[in-house]
């Protein structure tokens, strides 16, 4: 015979089991990013939780995972060659379909002239005094305005960046035109352009002219480094100093970062550095230091471009 006490215990057990099952179901979101036209997976898509410091990158099969209960929140997904998409998390398994982007092709007139090169943002490795890394799928960008000295229809020949990495990793190079509001606009590359970064403090040169031709737009360009949130780039930083006690404590704080660090230099050009995070672009002028605005030095990411005609 089942007593009242037994029935109550059964109800409690069922309730607990239901809560545990619900927690398990809602503690992780799994998804896949897919090309809407071809139905093929999209690797290395940039995925952010709107207005939060939570994000990831889709893997080579287009799949991604986010831990925690995010039901009802908004995802912002971007990938080179596709229109950006917002997706509501309304289940534990979601499909995100991205629309391929149509790129207008501008007419380029070629006229004979003597060969010239122009360098903008030039720096030496000794000028790099600090490095910034990423804990999510960030993009760091530097703006290069068009100058009269560039002449007609110059092409981007190469890009140089200063990095520091704990191991060999890879990044995605992004090149954007300038939107009407002065922020990074449309991609000038139509596909991912992965760059291998070697371990240590390096100055890496990325030669584009042998593979692609990118005319320099009259409004300028943004050269961006996109960090990939993949296992190969993952590194655990150990912050052993307890800020409250100012004492060294073993394994006090572990910070997950994704290599590489991108160099920062002092510069005479304000408002050139931008950051993409939480699904939006923000200008980083004055964000590298806690000094008051009137005492802040101008600093930029260590990114240099060489143009050729």
Could you tell me the number of beta strands?
22
Helix/strand order:
HEEEEEEEEEEEEEEEEEEEEEE
Mean pLDDT, as a whole number? 81
The rounded Rg comes to 24 Å
Q: Spans of 5+ residues with little confidence (pLDDT < 50)?
A: 12-25
DSSP summary: helix tally? 1
Quaternary state reads single chain
Write the layout of secondary structure elements.
Elements: H1 4-26, E1 28-35, E2 46-49, E3 55-57, E4 63-67, E5 74-78, E6 85-88, E7 93-98, E8 117-120, E9 130-134, E10 139-144, E11 155-165, E12 169-178, E13 184-187, E14 194-197, E15 200-207, E16 221-226, E17 234-242, E18 247-266, E19 273-277, E20 280-283, E21 299-301, E22 303-308
Parallel strand pairs: 1-7
Antiparallel strand pairs: 1-4, 2-3, 2-5, 5-6, 8-22, 9-18, 10-16, 10-19, 11-15, 11-18, 11-22, 12-13, 12-14, 12-16, 17-18, 18-21, 19-20
Question: Can you describe what's shown?
Answer:
It is a single chain. With 309 residues, the protein is mostly beta strands. About 5% of the residues have low confidence. The protein is globular and about 60 Å long. The strands form four sheets. Strands 8, 9, 11, 15, 17, 18, 21 and 22 form an eight-stranded antiparallel beta sheet that branches. Strands 10, 12, 13, 14, 16, 19 and 20 form a seven-stranded antiparallel beta sheet that branches. Strands 3-2-5-6 form a four-stranded antiparallel beta sheet, with no helix packed on it. A hairpin with a 5-residue loop joins β12 and β13. Helix content is 7%, strand content 45%. The chain has one helix and 22 strands.
